[in-house]
Structure formats: C-alpha cells, structure tokens
Please model this.
Amino acid sequence: MNRKKLDLRSIEYLVCILLAVLSIFPFWIMIVNATRSTTQIQQHAISMIPSTYALNNFKVLTGKSFKPIVGFTNSLIISIGATACAVYFSTMTAYGLVVYRWRGRQAYFTAVMAVMMIPAQITMIGFYQMMYRLHLTNRLSMLILPAIASPTMIFFMRQYMVGALSLEIVQSARIDGAGEFRIFNQIALPIMKPAIATQAIFSFVSSWNDLFRPLVLLTNQKKYTMPIMVSLLRGDIYKTEYGSVYLGLTLTVIPLMIVYFLLSKYIIAGVALGSVKG
Model:
C-alpha cells in the first residue's frame, strides 16, 4: 500500500515538474532571444544559451520610437488605476448584491450576466464616438474609468462572497453601530483578500496587455503604452530587428511577473483556507 502511494506521489511530482517546464520554456526562449542578434534568431530559431547582443538590441530598441520610460509610466498608471477601480467597485457591487435585500436584485444580476456576453469590440465604436465628441481622447483616464464597470469581476466576487462572507458578522457590526462603508472596508474587504488578489492579477495583466483600446483612443506618442510601442517595432519595411522585438517583449513581461509574485501568496492562502473549511 505504501509502495503504491509512493509511486503515485512520484507520478504527481513528475507531472508537476513537466508542467512547470512547459510553462517556463516560452519565457526562457523569449529572454534568450532578447540577447541574440537577428541573424542568430533567423538561422537558429531555438537556443537555450543566452548570447551577447543584449546591449546592441537595447541600443536598436531605444534608437527607434521606443521609449521604455514613457511606455512603462503610462502602462503602470493605466494598469494600477484600472485594477484598483475594477477590484474595489466590483467588490462593492457584489457586496450590495449579497448583503442587501432589494427589489430587482435578481433582475440586476441577470442584466450584469447579459452584459458579459457582449464583446468589447462592439461597444468600442460608440465609446470612441462619445469620447471624441466630448474631446476626451488622448487621456489616460478614459482607459481607467471604464474599468469601474466589470461584469466578469462582479460575477466572480459575488460567487466568492456568497460562501465567504457571513451575514451574521454584518448584522453584529450594525448592532455595534458601525456604518455601512466601515463594514465594507474593514470587514468585507479583508475577507475577500484571496478573491481580490486573484482578480487583481487578471485585471492588471489584461490592462497591461491591452492593445486595442489604447490604439484607438491614443494618438499622442507621449501617451503610448508598452504594447503600442512594441507593436510599432515591426514597422520597418526593410528589416525587422527581432532581437530588439524580443527585448521589448521581455521588458513588457517583467512587471506582470512582479505583480504575480507579490499577490500569489494571498491566492495560496485563500486556497489553503478553503481546504481547511472544507
């Protein structure tokens, strides 16, 4: 019996190691290609050993219209702002759907679910026309404020809050004289940390990698985000410097990794807490 358990555990470890290698492999290839020349990439597409052209690729990268500091700053402002707005207001909306009993609550939730079925590209035309008439194009705030209405995140937060938030705690806080905003900020939000961390990662990654909306709304180069700048690296009709393109992609991925490592502990803690409750 013990031998069977040992064999099963060995298989599980091997599968986990294989999945980890498959997940890390594309990132490693991207980092290695960022240190190689265009000729090396074209002649030998795959290499596991870094080369010595990283500095040359960076010079080519900054020699074009690529401005890493400007792109990083704009992308960080948009991603952090959109993530904060989406997480806070989606959690607040989910709180209202779970805690309060009001007429039309189910109809409102059904409407939120219906909005999830509408592709963002369909609403983008009307949104751009409205922003253009209001003279609000080329403003980073127009890429942040729409994140307040996030149907997918509202659905996720509601489903998590139904099982995690006890209504008795809310009632006790009300009896003690706590206001509704205090109850939400000091009781509901700490309980929702695992869900908030999970959705914050998804929201940050989605905002950071978003190319479609910034490309439509932003025409001023000083407002360009990292994805726009990376997409313009292949605009040379004579020769594409693949090494610099990979270096630009590597610089784009670094903040995403940092955010994941900072928030992953909350996700793991939430999973462990759920297993203990189960």
Observations:
- Residues 273-278 have pLDDT under 50 and may be disordered.
